Amino acid sequence: MSTNILAKIVASKFGEVAERKKQISINQLEAMPLFGQKAYSLKANLLDTTKTGIIAEFKRQSPSKGIINASASVAEVTKSYTQFGAAGVSVLTDFPYFGGSLDDLTIAVQNPIPVLRKEFIIDEFQIIEAKAYGASVILLIASCLTPAETELLAGTAKELGMEVLLELHDETELAYICEEVDFVGINNRSLKSFEVNIEHSLKLKDLLPKGKLSIAESGIYDIETFRILKQEGFDGFLMGEYFMKQTDPAKAFEAFSKQIQIKS
Fold first, then answer.
1. Residue 184: beta bridge partners?
2. Farthest CA pair distance, the chain
3. Is 80 assigned a catalytic role?
4. What are the start-end ranges of the E strands in the chain?
5. Strand 61-62 vs strand 66-67: parallel, antiparallel, or unpaired?
6. Residues 148/165, Cβ–Cβ less than 8 Å
7. Full DSSP string of 196-229
8. Which of 13, 41, 45, 59 is catalytic?
9. Is residue 80 domain-resident?
């Protein structure tokens, strides 16, 4: 995803959120049954050696790849993710660019696992909305925000009992890391060139503050890359495209998880 596409998405997101606010109030969101439900802990699952460390993503399409999988079942795929050792599940809720929805989130959260709302969050409303729909974790993308906005939004999530994943792309974004952030994700794919550079990610990881769990994001398409990142000390791995591009994503995740040889 280029910086131009990202800017376009964020610009349209402001209008989308404004329309959403007209449709449902914060009071209505807070009255929804799942709003008061205790969130599952992704941190606990990432530290659980019986699980894969993978945050497995359900993604139909993307601006850079187009349609990835238009026919997969949210229920079937996320059930497999949960059953075969995922530490968490990530669900895209952006429709215009990723073909996702809050309906997908509603289905995914029926599994007993922390679910990340993968969204371009620019407003506290979206965090309250995520909690109301059962998400346990939210994503904040540094490239979409200022450090002050990041701290404010992360603080809102923490107040609601949710965990926060902050996504970084380069060293200039290290200043976005704050106390309220639980995990720091390093996107292996450049926003400018689309190229995947594992070496760049490893160097950036060394600059992260101690005590923050690190998540490798994007470009993990085989067991070897996964093992390299794991050996280098990444605590978690956000993977979606590798599984979703298969004819049967549920079986693809099952096979991958067995290859990892989960410790019992």
1. 166, 214
2. 49
3. no
4. 54-58, 61-62, 66-67, 88-92, 115-118, 137-141, 163-168, 183-187, 213-217, 236-239
5. antiparallel
6. no
7. B-HHHHHHHHTTSPTT-EEEEES---SHHHHHHH
8. 59
9. yes
Is residue 217 annotated as a catalytic residue, yes or no? Answer: yes
Q: Looking at 119, 151, 167, 180, which residue is catalytic?
A: 167
Q: Is there a catalytic annotation at residue 119?
A: no
User: How is residue 262 written in tokens?
Assistant: 């989960």
Question: Which is catalytic among the residues 118, 136, 173, 214?
Answer: 118
pLDDT number for residue 263:
43
Active site residue 224: no
Residue with tokens 């410790």: 263
Known active-site residue 59: yes
30 catalytic? Reply is: no
Marked catalytic residue, from 45, 57, 62, 136: 57
pLDDT at residue 139, rounded to an integer: 98
The stretches in the chain having pLDDT less than 50 are 262-264
Query: Does 94 map to a domain?
Result: yes
Tell me the CATH number at 46. Answer: 3.20.20.70
The pLDDT of residue 16? 97
Burial of 126 (0-12, 13-18, 19+ CB in 10 A): buried
Angle between helices 249-260 and 223-231 (to 10 degrees): 50
Q: Look at residue 264 in the predicted model and tell me its pLDDT.
A: 37
DSSP 238: E
Measured CA to CA, the distance from residue 135 to residue 29 in angstroms comes to: 13
Amino acid present at 126: Q
Model pLDDT for residues 185-233, shown as the tens digit of each residue: 999 876 665 677 788 788 899 999 988 999 999 889 999 999 999 999 9
Is there a domain that residue 97 lies in? yes
- What pTM, to 2 d.p., does this model score? 0.95
- The span from the CA of 219 to the CA of 103, in Å, is 27
In terms of residue numbers, what domain contains 27? 3-259
Count of structural domains, the chain = 1
264: in domain: no
